[in-house]
Each structure stands twice: as C-alpha cells, then as structure tokens.
Amino acid sequence: MRIVNEAVLLISPSVPARFENRSRMVSSAPAMFQLSDVTLAYGSSRPVLQRLNLSILEGEFVTLAGPSGCGKSTLLKLLAGLLKPSSGRVSYAGLPAGEIPVEAGFVFQQPALLPWRTAISNLRLPLELGTQQSARSTDLELLQLMRQVGLREEDAHKRPAELSGGMQMRLSLARALVRSPRVLLLDEPFAAVDDLLRMKLQDDLRRVHEQRGLTTVLVTHNLQEAAWLSDRVLIIQPAPVGITNSIPVPRTTEGTERRTSAEFHTTLNALNTALLQS
Question: Environment class of residue 158 by beta-carbon count within 10 Å: exposed (0-12), middle (13-18) or buried (19+)?
Fold first, then answer.
C-alpha cells in the first residue's frame, strides 16, 4: 500500500431515512480489509497480535480502542502495509496487501509538516513524491481542499510556525487527502490538542469521511471520541487476547445535539463497560 502522508451500524426502527440508507449501504458493502489468522511478533519476543481475524467494510468508520501496548498502532501499520504479519493474511479489497498500488492517507499524532514550506507547499509534497498525476494538482484545487478541512485561503502561504496547533492538524489531514485516497488511517491525531479544539477537529473528520465516502480507521484512547466518530468500535486487549468486543455505534442523530443525546451516552457507557470488563 502506498502511504501518501504521514462499521456495521445499529439502527432503531425510527431512524431517519438518510441514516437508514447509509446503514444498509455500509452493511452490504464488500470488505475493504480482511485479516485472517494474523500473528505479528518482533523477533523472538511475545506476539503483539496473535491469530487475529477481522473484517472492515468499505465505507465504515472503525475505531481501535484499548490500553497502551495492546497493539492498536501495530494493527494500523499492518493495514497500511508498513508491517508484514509473521503469519496469516492481510488483504485489501480481496487481494493481498502490497500486490496492488493502493493509496491510503495516514495522519499521525504530530502533524510532521516541513517547517520551511508554506501550507500549500506542504500540501503539494505528496504530488511531488508520487509517481502518478493527481486530480488535485492545481493551486485552486489545493485551496478548495484546505477549505474543506476548515482552513482559509489566507493560510495558504503561512509556514507551520505561523499556524496554531489545530490549523497544523487540519493541514496534516488535508495532506493525507491530497491524492484522493479510498482509505484514511489515523493514529491518535488529536491527542495533543485541547478539548474544545478536539471536538471541532472531530466534526471536521467525520464530515470529510462522509463527503468522500472513505473507509476510515482511527486509533484513540479517548472513548468519547470513539463514541462520537465511529460506526463501530473494536476493544482490543494485549495478545494473546486480541479483539474482545466489536461494538456497533447507532447514528440516528447528527450535529451538536448528538453529544448530549441519550444515544451517545448509552454508547459511551457501553464502551466504558466493555473496556473495563475485557
């Protein structure tokens, strides 16, 4: 899989049509990722992941949650093709990872922007490094992408030091999207920002996921973030335990009112219980 940068739904009978339609669309989608009996160990040490079986459907937003050291980031790197399993099979859209040139956007915990480049020049970097021409290659199209993630046109010629932490994360997200990937992988991207900014960035991320029809996999320790963003949350414990729960997240409401809804808090309680009992 080429890295350009750094969910089955549970729906109640009263779900509005647009959410019910999305539920049917995602639940009937083919698998974007399929892991079969996957084990990964570094050398002769105890496996980080052991005999893991997992499907992630096209269009799902899946979050990986669990204690530190359980293998969440390792699993994300397996999906990206940055690591190879010690045994078992990781396939993308039915084919073994690495056999086809798959584009995936990857967003890390730190923005990892080049300090001497302007914002729009940082966005252009994946195009300069890539081997294929991207549809998003003109300055106008790059500016449109910046606006999509909440940046302004006047930010285009600022260097990273002139951007706030939240603006840098938005730029990192835009850079991950510049080659129009089908898959977006995120490793705790909002861990270093304050709570209010984190909520705004979460809104941006979910909106981009929906607008672009992405398959998104997020690693986070924040269960509120998982409950807010996801279609499905996987609770992971260190090997040899692996995935202990796969929890579907109902999304019958959207917008700011969802954060105070009974649905959201029921999901959050379910995630807390699953993590404590696993």
Answer: middle
Q: Mutual orientation of helices 119-129 and 165-177 as an angle, nearest 10°? A: 30
Q: Helix 165-177 to helix 139-148 angle, to the nearest 10 degrees? A: 120
Of residues 245, 249, 247, the one with CA closest to residue 229: 249
E strand spans, the chain: 2-3, 31-40, 49-57, 61-65, 87-92, 95-96, 103-107, 183-187, 215-219, 232-237, 242-248
What CATH number matches the domain at 2-109+181-277, 1.10.1410.10, 3.40.50.40, 1.20.1440.230, 3.40.50.300?
3.40.50.300
| 175-202 pLDDT per residue, tens | 999 988 899 999 999 988 888 888 889 9
What is the per-residue pLDDT across 43-81, written as a single tens digit (0 to 9) for each? 777 888 889 999 999 999 999 998 888 889 999 988 888
Q: Is the dihedral of CA 80, 81, 84, 87 positive or negative?
A: positive
Domain spans, the chain: 2-109+181-277
Across the chain, mean pLDDT equals 83
Report residue 251's pLDDT band, with 50, 70 and 90 as the boundaries: confident
